[in-house]
Amino acid sequence: MESAFVISRRQLLSLGASALAVAGLAACNNGGGNDTGGGDAPATDPNDVKSLTSVPGKLTVATGNPAWEPWVMNDAPESGEGFEAALIYALADKMGFAAEDVAWVRTTFEEAYAPGQHDWDLNIQQVSINDDRKKAIDFSPAYFRPTQSIIVKADSAYANATSCADFADAVVGVMMGTTALDYVKDILGVEPEVYNDNSDAAAAVSSGQADALVTDTPQCVYMVESDQVENSVVVGQIPGTEDPEGLGITLAKDSPLTPFVTEAMDAILEDGTVQGLVDQWLAAYTSDIPVLTE
Fold first, then answer.
1. Which domain holds residue 252?
2. Whole-model pTM?
3. Which end of the chain is more exposed for a tag (fewer CB within 10 A), N or C?
4. Residues paired with 215 in a beta bridge
């Protein structure tokens, strides 16, 4: 009887192992569940933009932290208020995304043009298009071409400056990684003081550690009006600083979304949507500012 019991138990174990093997094969064939995709990630359709985003069906857009006016009003891009916030919703609509399918995240300025893969699909925060950056990332067509202006304290010796030469002995602050750095060197002829962001540069001017701050003209106007730089004025635009290639939205290099973004941006540039947003959000920040002489 003992021998018969042993044989029976082994047979049962053998049958159980076989059953588990069959179940395992079935699970593999079914992707471990109800998915019929063979266990792989869902297939993407190169003609369906919504299947190509980092979160399918959602368009994840990064902006700065904080995001400055007039590009984004009240640091709230989801409101759609401010030039770049409104632009993204117009672009998303042209690409076929509903407003509720746009998700916002925050990055540093440097991350907007850093190589590699990202957890966002698009990044918009006044990134100038240039050849060096094109080696690492993709750009949309340009959506705006800003000039650079100079902020100084209203009671400083530089408040009456009318030429670039007037700043020959000034301490001029700029944000790291921006085109302002090159303009200050090449046009003002000054070696700039470089700060992590415009908030730090503004604080330096407010405290007297720097004499001036250079950044995009719309942001200069906002910083003065909002007292980001205490008791300050925009003394003038720097000649020759209209961005030749303009500002572009950034994407990962060779992103499958790039053709869709390019087509959509071209469409809203051509139909006047972008110009309408410029008139709505930027006109008050770019008009009536004198241009300095060289």
1. 52-145+244-286
2. 0.76
3. N
4. 149
